[in-house]
Design a protein that fits this description.
The complex is a heterodimer of chains A (about 350) and B (about 450). With about 350 residues, chain A is mainly alpha-helical. Chain A has one domain: ABC transporter involved in vitamin B12 uptake, BtuC (Orthogonal Bundle). Helices cover about 65% and strands about 5% of the residues of chain A. In chain A, a hairpin with a 5-residue loop joins β1 and β2. Chain A is globular, with a radius of gyration of 23 Å. Chain B has about 450 residues and is an alpha/beta fold. Chain B is about 40% helix and about 20% strand. Chain B is globular, with a radius of gyration of 25 Å. Classes of the chains: A mainly alpha (about 350), B alpha/beta (about 450). Chains A and B meet through α1, β2, β4 and α13 of A and β7, α7, α8, α9 and α10 of B.
């Protein structure tokens, strides 16, 4: 039971990351009809906003400490961060410790700007071009962004720690009545899950309960008619692109303490996110969220040797080829589920008729 | 009118025989010997530095490149000479190799075997490289080693830790200075027994490729010999990023040790995430839970930050060693670049020095002469104590370092390299094995290939 709950928690946590990225991807596809292969790069830029904030708060002056020597035997050059000069050692250290949450104030404007720049500067020229052209140009853009990040930050993963207050685990066993220490889950991952849930709810509320959102939804359903009513739908769609970029960026920023950012991190998530979008149904926001969680949980369970062992035992497939295949399913389960769902429901879980079918 | 007795065919035949006869002395003359691939003819010789400059091991590759450039400087008589002064052989005098100035070309392996082979191929065919060196992956090393064997040039491997490089995939033209998975296991075992006892249950997460498999096999054999039980070995995809779904099952598995057979970014992520799951603070079977990373590198330590505190691992070499060779190299590298060298940088520097010295001793660039000079060659003064390049498998035998993660100074100049501390220098005798050891069986060096 403990192991089961742990895998569910892990699945929800993984699923929330998939759902958050897929949500932005679907938002762009649903509004602008663009298949954006640079969406993973937006996630990466968000993660590097956290790194940048860490670097900004770590900006230091050099003091030569004659009492210590470096590895060459020269007097040690000690770095004293400016924030510690300005706010005192303790307060400065606390501010540095909270660099990832503080990166929110950098990520949102940067991502809105990047999203706006990307849409106005490049993607708008590809609206009327075939999807294959859109994929090529956005994929190329993702490579360019990745190389720029590498030129500035190097190729190594960069440790971006969470605030020390959130280091460690929360004893979920105690809250779930399973006994002390039975289910301990990392605090930051739980925070990530709730953060994702809030962002997803906020995006849905924005689209559902605001006039702006209503116009956007109308535009998604029938762009031409909305335009004929005198509404500048393009302007609103550009803003939606910025919003989707901000969602991806925030997902990346909050993920930085879990997965040390590196220039290729976006590509790692891109393929999975596309599978999530396709399984959920192209253009369906609830579908993207549902598929994100579903695939996250599936991946989590199939990574557990005990779970796979249970299936193999139950089906009496020990020492058979099928049993061996089941034991290796963790690396392909997402794609297997995608194949099964697309065979049985070609439009995905909650896909709409007519999307990408013309 | 007289009729000529020479037919056109006869003239051509005579000409061909005479031409061949006239060319033969030139062919046989040593200086212009084309009996081996890319025999240097001018006053320069070109080496090929094939390292990952992009991709997951790019930082390691760039550090290798720094050391390789430093080695070329020292061979050409520039800089402070580094390890030339401490090397037990004193055949290199700063005038290049056999009086020829050393040039180099670089290639990007991207840590992909096919790309690495294409890059090495271009170095051999286009740039006339006489020797290829570098790399940060066993898959790449095995692929490039095979290519060099076919092409008839020497391959001095960079960072490659799989048993197979000098085991089942060993080649006569290939040489490895770096240690291997078996040596890591044997060096770590006594330290682990002393620290954690002989009654432990280990859970392995293993990178699903050649290096991961051989390391898992080596570490499991060494720890099982102590009396440890291997609870589970789970293969994880390379570059998985988020390892949480593989780590979560460890919590309820009954294991009290997690062994991460991961390298590079995978190790940084899996270790960080294991610590986030509270494994280091957990108690299982009445014992403190422990994490082990059998193969360490400075760049991984830098990436993992404070998560490596208290975690044991092993290394080929470390900048904190206090022998004269290591001190000379650290000084030379540190003054040029402003931070200490990694063990990837060290092995590449040493490989170039060893190659240059072998050519000098052989008096020839002919790969077969170099192979002969390197086989069963004993040397010292290059940072690892007395070392032997064993002739049977072209593997170097020397001391191995057992490391422990510690809290670093946080000093920017240290690059986080001071988060690893040397726990023990395992004597060479302890990590030696027979060439036909089961973990290395199935391969054959074959004949040395001089190429063209």
């Amino acid at each position: 039971m403990d192991a089961f709950i742990l895998q569910i928690l892990n699945g929800l946590d993984k699923g929330s990351a998939y759902a958050l990225i897929a949500l932005g991807l679907t938002l762009i596809f649903g509004t602008l009809g663009v298949v954006n292969f640079a969406h993973g790069a937006l996630f990466m830029i968000g993660a590097f906003c956290a790194v940048t904030m860490q670097r900004i708060l770590g900006l230091s002056r050099t003091v030569i400490d004659e009492t210590q020597t470096d590895f060459l035997g020269n007097p040690m050059a000690v770095q004293v961060p400016y924030v510690q000069d300005w706010f005192g050692a303790a307060a400065g250290a606390t501010i540095q410790d909270w660099s990832v949450p503080l990166a929110f104030f950098l990520t949102v404007p940067v991502m809105l700007l990047v999203g706006w720049g990307m849409e106005r500067g490049l993607i708008k020229h590809f609206y009327k071009r075939p999807h294959a052209d859109q994929i090529l140009v956005t994929f190329g853009l993702a490579i360019v962004i990745g190389e720029i990040i590498k030129a500035f930050y190097g190729a190594n993963p960069i440790q971006t720690p969470m605030p020390s207050a959130f280091v460690g685990t929360i004893d979920m066993g105690r809250y779930l009545g399973l006994g002390e220490g039975a289910v301990a889950y990392p605090t930051w991952r739980l925070i990530y899950f709730f953060f994702s849930a809030i962002i997803i709810a906020a995006v849905f509320a924005f689209l559902q309960f605001t006039t702006f959102g209503m116009v956007v939804r109308a535009g998604m359903a029938d762009r031409e008619t909305v335009g004929m009513l005198g509404i500048d739908i393009d302007k609103r769609f550009t803003l939606m692109f910025g919003l989707a970029a901000a969602v991806a960026g925030l997902a990346g920023m909050m993920y930085a303490p879990i997965l040390s950012p590196h220039y290729n991190i976006g590509m790692d998530f891109l393929v999975l996110s596309f599978v999530v979008v396709v399984v959920g149904g192209m253009g369906s926001l609830p579908g993207a969220v549902l598929a994100g969680f579903l695939l996250g949980i599936m991946q989590s369970f199939f990574s557990n040797p005990a779970f796979k062992g249970f299936i193999v035992d139950a089906l009496r497939l020990n020492d058979t080829f099928t049993g061996t295949v089941i034991n290796g399913l963790d690396q392909i389960i997402i794609y297997l589920v995608a194949i099964v769902i697309l065979l049985t429901r070609p439009r995905g879980l909650l896909g709409r008729k007519g999307v990408m079918e013309e | 009118m007289t009729k000529s007795t020479y037919s056109r065919r006869r003239v051509l035949q005579t000409g061909a025989v005479a031409g061949t006869g006239l060319m033969l002395p030139t062919y046989l003359r040593a200086e212009a010997h084309t009996g081996f691939t890319n025999a240097p003819t001018g006053d320069t010789v070109t080496l090929g530095f094939n390292v990952p400059q992009t991709g997951p091991y790019a930082e390691e590759g760039l550090d290798e490149l720094r050391a390789q450039e430093l080695a070329v400087q020292h061979l050409n008589g520039e800089g402070d000479g580094g390890m030339l002064a401490t090397f037990s052989e004193q055949n290199l005098d700063g005038t290049g190799i056999l009086g020829k100035k050393v040039n180099f070309v670089t290639g990007d392996t991207q840590t992909k075997s096919d790309v690495a082979r294409a890059s090495a191929q271009s170095m051999i065919q286009k740039d006339n490289c006489i020797m290829i060196t570098g790399g940060s992956s066993s898959g790449v090393a095995v692929a490039v080693q095979g290519l060099c064997q076919e092409a008839g040039v020497i391959f001095m491997a960079g960072l490659t830790h799989s048993n197979d490089t000098t085991g089942k995939d060993r080649k006569a033209n290939g040489f490895r200075h770096f240690f291997n998975g078996y040596m890591s296991g044997v060096a770590l075992a006594p330290v682990l027994e002393k620290a954690y006892g002989s009654d432990r249950r280990a859970y392995h997460l293993t990178a699903d490729y050649n290096w991961g498999w051989t390391q898992n096999e080596s570490i499991a054999a060494s720890t099982e010999a102590l009396g440890w039980e291997t609870v589970q070995n789970v293969l994880t995809p390379v570059g998985a990023g988020d390892f949480s779904s593989y780590i979560a099952p460890v919590l309820n598995s009954g294991a009290d040790v997690l062994i991460l057979n991961h390298y590079g970014g995978d190790m940084v992520n899996s270790l960080t995430q294991a610590v986030q799951f509270g494994l280091k603070d957990k108690q299982v079977n009445g014992k403190d839970f422990q994490i082990i990373v059998p193969l360490y590198s400075e760049l991984m330590a830098k990436g993992a930050g404070s998560n490596i505190e208290g975690v044991y691992g092993s290394m080929n070499w470390n900048w904190q060693l206090q022998d004269e060779g290591s001190k000379a190299f650290v000084k030379s590298f540190g003054e040029k670049y402003g931070f200490p060298p990694s063990n990837a940088a060290h092995t590449c520097y040493v490989q170039i020095m060893l190659y240059a010295d072998a050519v000098a001793r052989a008096g020839s660039f002919n790969p077969c002469a170099v192979v002969e000079a390197l086989e069963d060659f004993d040397f010292d003064g290059l940072g690892n104590g007395p070392t032997t390049y064993r002739g049977a498998d072209h593997q170097c035998f020397k001391d191995v370092l057992v490391m422990e993660g510690v809290a670093g100074s946080g000093n920017a100049n240290m690059m986080g390299y001071d988060t690893l501390s040397i726990v023990e220098v395992t004597p060479r005798a302890q990590v030696e094995y027979e060439p036909d050891h089961p973990m290395f069986a199935g391969g054959s060096l074959g004949e040395c290939n001089p190429g063209a």
